[in-house]
Structure formats: C-alpha cells, structure tokens
Fold this sequence. Notes:
This protein is mainly α. The protein has helices spanning 3-13, 19-58, 62-70, 74-103, 108-147, 149-160, 164-210.
Amino acid sequence: MDELEILKKDWKKNENVFDQVTEKEIYGMLHKRSSSIVKWILIISILELVLWNVISFLFPDDSYAKTTVENHLDKIVGIIEIFNYVVIVFFIYLFYKNYRAINTRDTVKELMNSILKTRKTVQYYVWYNVGMVSFLFVLGLTYQFMYDSNMQKLINQGTQSENSGNFQLIFVITIFVIVALIFIGLIWLFYRLLYGILMKRLQKNYYELKKIDF
Length: 214
C-alpha cells in the first residue's frame, strides 16, 4: 500500500481531530508526485531529441540521402528538419515551463490547472509527432510518383496497357499505404507507451486533488 493510501485511511480515522493537517499532507504528497511526473516528461522529451540525433549521426543513411536527391526532396526535407527541430525545442520549453509552474503552485485549484495544462501539452506533442510522420509519408510518396523512374515506368505501363500495368500500380500503392499505416501506428503506440503511463499517473493525481476541499 502506498503512502497516499495510508494517509487517506489515517485521515478517515481522525478526521474530526486532524482534518486540515491531513488534507495539507495529502496535498503536499500529490504536489510532489505531480512535480516529479512533469520533470520526467521534460527529461524524456530531451533524451528523445538527443537519441534521434545521436542515431542519425552515428548511422548516416547514404541511400536515404541519395534517394532524397534523386526525388528532388533534399531541399524540402532540409527545411522540414529545421522546422521540426524548432517545434520540438519549443515543446521542450513548454515542458520546462510546466515543470517550473507546477512547483510554484500553492493552492489545489492552481495545481489542478497546471496538471490539465501539462496533459494538453503532452497530447499536442504526441499528435504533432504522429502528424509529422504521416505528412512525411504522404510527401515522400507524392514525390516518388513524380520523379522516381520505376514509378514513372509503372504509371506509363498503367496508362498504355489495360490490366497488368494497372494491377501493378494499384498493388504498389496498396503496399505503400499498408506500410505507412503500420509505421504510423507503431509511432503512435510508441508515444502512447512512452508518455501514457505518466499521463495516467498525472490524471490520477488530478482526481485525488478534486476530493480535497480547502
């Protein structure tokens, strides 16, 4: 049994004698837990950014770079990467701001508002990453249809022949869509697992705070 449950049971036993003191103790524990959770959200987001940069630096993908050049994606990918870094750093700043804010909250209502704000920030962060991955897949597929020689060949075969070319083109598009959906689903699952546990704990703290009435 955790400390919070012990405090709550003790509170019920002695609610007529130590009512206000025990409420403050419970609030202090919830405040401490919430601050710790938000701190871990900040740490994980920073580690995530560092990890992807380390992987791209240690394991450069020459074939990917060559493909982007061949498909005329090199310039736009560079712009997207810069934009993505700016947005991620902005989210990290918001996580830091939420962490600092939650440490200075003195009332139950202020702490509850900080928790809600933090949860919204994390939700926006997760949906941004999933949306960016989806956008890159659509962009890559579009440019591949426009510039990839093999794709152009399939398109020409589809327009010139009746069945075989069309079948191959539809088959390739279907495979691309399936792979994209699987990859996007895995990205979504990754973020749900990474931040979902922390969000559930933060939500539990929020509901516990609603029971306190100073």
